[in-house]
Amino acid sequence: MHTYSIAARAATASRLPNPQQLVPELAEVGAALFKATGNGSVPRGTISLVQLRVGQIVGSTYLTVLHSGNLRTAGESEERIAAVATWTDAPHFSEAERAALALAESVVQPSPHGERVSDELYAGAAQHYDDRALATLAMAIGQVNFFVALAAVGKPIPGRPPAEQWTPLQG
């Protein structure tokens, strides 16, 4: 198959059929993760900002488009959505949001200096979030990371409705 043919197919179809059809238990796992991260201890907007940043860091167009869309649907400004990629020097985020974004980055990116979440970073996040909220943030980072593998392997189509993101299951 020519490279052009592979690229053209990639633009119109995922590599895998819908994982929920292949592994029906995935729906329960996804729903449980969404419920756990939506427990109210961290604003849903902060969760979405964190998940957008993780999608950007891992280089997933699908996850970046998905979480940007979630933020738009929730009424987030285009300015703040665009600024997530450069949050460290953008004036658009609260100190609590900055702490959550720093925590996400530290978990997802390897550290050349030892542990990923230093005591100093943890203490900074703990100034804004109690233990339940910190555990929820950890789960929110894990939630998006759970789907990173499916996005990387299956390559769903970014920006399409859920029913159209995956190649139909061949019977």
SSE string, helices as H and strands as E? HHHHHHHHH
Helical content (DSSP H or I, runs of 4+): 55-70%
Mean pLDDT score: 89
Strand count, sense and closure of the main sheet?
A: none
Q: What spatial form do the alpha-carbon principal axes imply?
A: globular
Oligomer class: single chain
Beta strand count: 0
Ranges where pLDDT stays below 50 over 5 or more residues in a row are none
Give a verbal description of the structure.
With 171 residues, the protein is mostly helical. It contains nine helices and no strands. It is globular, with a radius of gyration of 17 Å. The chain starts with a helix and ends in a 17-residue tail after the last helix. The model has no long low-confidence stretch (mean pLDDT 89).
Protein traits:
single chain; 171 residues; mainly alpha; globular
Summarize the structure.
By secondary structure, the protein is mainly α.
Secondary structure: elements and pairs:
Elements: H1 3-12, H2 19-22, H3 25-37, H4 44-57, H5 61-73, H6 78-83, H7 95-108, H8 119-126, H9 131-154
